[in-house]
Amino acid sequence: MSPFCWWSQVALKIMNLSSDHCNISDWLRLEATVKASVYVVAFFFATFVTVVIITIVLQNSKLRKEVRHILLCHHLLCISSYCGLGVVFQGMRALLANSPVLVCWVVFGVQLSVGEGILFTLALMAVNTYLAVCWPLKSLSLVDSVKYRILAASWIIIIFKNVCLFLIESANPPRVAVFKSEPLCPVILNGPPARAVGMVFLFFLLSIILISYFLIYREGKRAGHFNRSNIKAKKTVLIHLVQMSLHVIPILIFIGLGKMCGVFFFALNLVLFGVFAFAQCLNPLIYGLWNRELQSGLYHWMCCQLWCGHIMNDREPV
C-alpha cells in the first residue's frame, strides 16, 4: 500500500469518527495506528545509527575506555529499545490484539522505564561533561572508577520506582481483571500518584541537566574558551538545550491534556508526538555524530566498507 493511500484511509477514518458521537476507543485505536507507523520508521533509523556508532566505538580501544562514549552507547541503546517497544505496544492497540491486561502493562511499563533511562543517561552525560570541563584532573580517575556502578544505580532507582507505582495501581482492580484480555491495550502508571512522581522525576533530571550546562557555559565564558578556540562548544550547549526542549515540552503537554475526543485534540496529539519522535531520531545524530572523534571514526568505517566492497566485487568470477 502506498503512503498516499494509507494517509487517505486515515483521513477517511478521522472524518467518520468526527461525524459520530465521541468514542474514545476509536480515537485511541486510530492514534495507535499512526504512532505505530511512526515508531517503525524511528526504530529502524535509530537502530541503524546506533549500530554504526557502537561499531565505531568498539573498534577503537581509546573510545571504548572513555566514559562519555560508554554513556553515549547506553543512551543510543535506550532510544532504539524505546522505539522498538513503542512499535510493540502501539501495534497491539492498533491491531486489537486482545492481549491480557498484565502483558499490556508490562510492555508499557518497560517502555516507560526505558524512556526514563534516556533522560537519566542525558543527565549523567551532562554531569560528566561538567566534571571534564571544570574538574579535568580530579574527575578523570573518580568517574572512571564508578561509571558502571552509577549506571547500575540509576537503573535500580528507575525499576524500583516504577515497580512500586505498578503495585500501587495494580492493587485497585481485582486479580481476575489483571489476567483478562482487552482488545485495546490499557496503559499503566497513569494515575495521580504516578503522574506526580513522574513530574518530580522529570524536573529533577531536567534541573541537573540545565545546571550542568549553565556551569559549563559559565566556566567556558570565564576562561575565554568560547571567545577563542572553542566556539563550537557554545553551539553544542545551545543545540543540546533545544534538543531537550523537544523532548520535555511534548511530554508536559501530554500529561496536561490527557486523552480527549475530537479532530483538534487528535491532530494536536499527533503533532506533539511527531515532535517527540523527531527528537528521538535526532538524538543519535546530535549526541553521536556531532562528536569529532566519531566523525573521524565514521569516515574510516565508511572507507573500510567501500574498500571491502570493491575487493569482494573484484573476486567475483566473470
UniProtKB/TrEMBL annotation:
Q: Can you give the residue ranges of the G-protein coupled receptors family 1 profile domain? A: 49-287
Please give the Gene3D superfamilies that the UniProt record associates with this protein. Rhodopsin 7-helix transmembrane proteins
What the entry lists under InterPro entries is as follows: GPCR1_Superfamily_Member (IPR052921), GPCR_Rhodpsn (IPR000276), GPCR_Rhodpsn_7TM (IPR017452)
The record's Pfam families line, in alphabetical order, gives: 7tm_1
Where located?
Membrane
| UniProt-recorded Gene Ontology molecular function terms | G protein-coupled receptor activity; odorant binding; olfactory receptor activity
GO cellular component term, pick one: membrane
- Keywords on record: G-protein coupled receptor, Membrane, Receptor, Transducer, Transmembrane, Transmembrane helix
Membrane-spanning parts: 36-58, 70-92, 118-137, 149-168, 196-216, 237-257, 263-290
The name this protein carries in UniProt is: Probable G-protein coupled receptor 148 isoform X1
- Organism expressing this protein natively: Acinonyx jubatus
Identify the gene encoding this protein: LOC106972298
